[in-house]
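USER: For my understanding, would you kindly supply a protein sequence with its structure tokens?

ASSISTANT:
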Amino acid sequence: MLYHLYETQRSLMEPFTDFAQAASKLFSNPVSPLSQTSVAQRMAAGYDLLYRLGKDYEKPAFDIHTVDVDGIGVAIHERIEVDKPFCELRRFKRFSDDPATLTKLKGQPVVLIVAPLSGHYATLLRDTVRTMLKDHKVYITDWKNARLVPLSEGEFHLDDYVNYVQDFIRHLQGIYGNCHVISVCQPTVPVLAAVSLMASRGEKTPLTMTMMGGPIDARKSPTAVNNLATNRSYEWFENNVIYRVPEKFPGAGRRVYPGFLQYTGFVAMNPDRHASSHYDYFKNLIKGDDASAEAHRKFYDEYNAVLDMDADYYLETIQTVFQDYKLVNGTWDVRSPDGKLERVRPQDIKTTALFTVEGELDDISGSGQTEAAHDLCSGIVRKEQRHLEAKGAGHYGIFSGRRWRDIVYPKVRAFILEHELPAKPVASAAAPKLASASPAPAKAAPVAKTTTAKAPKAAAKPAPARPAAKPAGATAVATRWVQPAATPTGAAQEPTADLTTAQNSATAAPSTRSSGKSKARKA
């Protein structure tokens, strides 16, 4: 009933928001007589603020058209690679007509970014994708708004999420031979489960897993998000936050956790900060500070756009991750597409290197929650594990903004490059969505040894050594980097970090450079 009331209220407010938008333009348009009055700027700013507070925010676009690769503008074509009922695997394909750049792009690692399904769209990782595109072939999971998925598609469970991730990994393995996986926040848990199940079956697993700011062990340094999940029972969530989608949407009748409730929770965590931000926006409009006003619009166009989550997925996540801690307790059973229950055993992972990233000031996933993955993945030799704590970074700072680009990304890039295998010919232009399981080949461990914040464990017998990229000798200020021992003379050095000083997601992309008569080639 609450969902229906919310939609009714929004529909009734729509004419007033349209009026506020029109009034703002009347007081700001130079040809309008109203713009010549002494209160024109204040009236225009006030109406503009009312419009933005009342408008409906649709899903934003990634809006990544070009990226700069060593001074060359590379064109980006965004397309859907795999379309599932609740998720699209989206690819950002790069094109260049510069032969040297094209050769470089073709030999770069393949990365699957698993975006969170926790209220916001995958476009929240726009800066992550844009930065990764300079050095990687990038795919991302673009989760669909549950209210737009018809009931005929069935329910969506946490088990389905895990199975989706496995399908996407197999899809990339079928094309490129293997891939690297990056999970941001919520998906760290299902991604670890997906790779664990693949390892237990003897399937080929990704070369690396990079886990950033996720609740692997939510018992450590609990935050307000963790406390809410533990202070209420499963039945309370089911009875108080689950509603059916109204009739006007394709998913009418589907049980969901509405996005507007999730948004309300986000704002309630820092109401003063949001109030101050909107007041500053009002003052910037009066002062004519267009740059600051536009930065505010871009941030809240993203922040205010939320999606509904299927009720089964949401409730199972609350129970599995935040109440029963099934992953760390070793009691999590996942149902495969053929109906078979399989136990999640992270200790079975042996040929995938692990890198965890946390933010010092993260108020969503507390300190130590992500690092706990190292203890669970006891089958991975210690020299194949890394951990980074970004000093001064909050939750969003580890995957978006200056700290992501200057501190976190250079380490992620070096880690992926260190474990990248020699390039192989592409199997086919369109590989099957689901590849058959095959035994995972043993991956050589790097020569360098790694220390961790945890007490050292007995390492498995290392495989024959292969050259390893050596992390930069001096760490960036405000970071804690668990660094390997010295690399033998002659080992490959880490590429120099490309430190960017542009603002978060408002960076202007350079245009694509042509090369005379040569036609555009793709990578």
Q: What stands out?
A: Confidence is low (pLDDT under 50) at residues 425-523.
